[in-house]
């Protein structure tokens, strides 16, 4: 495994541009109540962790910057861990500092290690959460099309289609009462006496 190189960033939050940086940062966050996850809405990596360009030459993990803003200090070479297990969350109340060992113990205890369950809400790269999935299922149940649901929720048609077909969010959808229709083959009518090839 490659060694992680820590690059200090807190000096940007002490610069004359600090307030502008904070405003730009919080504009990219869906802020809820203090106990809710605050979702990062901008650039994210394949694991769902957000990134913020704090300066033209410096990109910082969004949750690390949130922690630093809230605690008024640089996290240094420690990791910024999520109590909520949601990589998109930047609520500083849900964040804490920890070591590589702390992070590994979290992964093991929460089933996120390499062979752990990464389906549905446990997949950090997902575009939905359980509340949004409930809205998708409600849309199915009242007869909305995939396109209508996708447009209302701001997700792709493909995402909705995979849920409807039972190929994505299967376990969580079942808990919410959604059961995909069984696959069927279309009957082909042939003139009598003609054999199919």
TrEMBL record:
Source species: Tardibacter chloracetimidivorans
Top-level taxon: Bacteria
Residue ranges occupied by any HNH nuclease domain in the UniProt entry: 61-104
InterPro entries named in the record: His-Me_finger_sf, HNH_nuc, Homing_endonuclease_His-Me
GO molecular function: endonuclease activity
Name the record gives this protein: HNH nuclease domain-containing protein
């Amino acid at each position: 495994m490659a060694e992680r190189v820590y690059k200090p960033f807190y000096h940007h939050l002490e610069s004359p541009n600090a307030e502008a940086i904070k405003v730009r940062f919080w504009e990219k966050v869906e802020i809820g109540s203090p106990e809710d996850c605050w979702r990062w809405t901008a650039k994210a990596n394949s694991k769902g962790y957000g990134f913020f360009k704090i300066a033209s030459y410096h990109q910082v993990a969004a949750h690390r910057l949130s922690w630093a803003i809230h605690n008024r200090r640089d996290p240094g070479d420690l990791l910024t861990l999520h109590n909520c297990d949601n990589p998109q969350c930047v609520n500083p109340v849900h964040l804490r500092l920890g070591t590589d060992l702390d992070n590994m113990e979290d992964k093991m205890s929460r089933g996120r290690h390499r062979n752990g369950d990464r389906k549905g809400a446990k997949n950090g790269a997902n575009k939905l959460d359980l509340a949004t999935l409930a809205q998708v299922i409600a849309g199915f149940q009242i007869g909305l099309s995939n396109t209508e649901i996708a447009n209302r929720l701001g997700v792709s048609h493909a995402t909705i289609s995979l849920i409807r077909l039972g190929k994505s969010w299967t376990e969580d959808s079942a808990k919410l009462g959604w059961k995909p229709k069984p696959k069927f083959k279309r009957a082909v009518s042939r003139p009598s006496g003609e054999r199919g090839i």
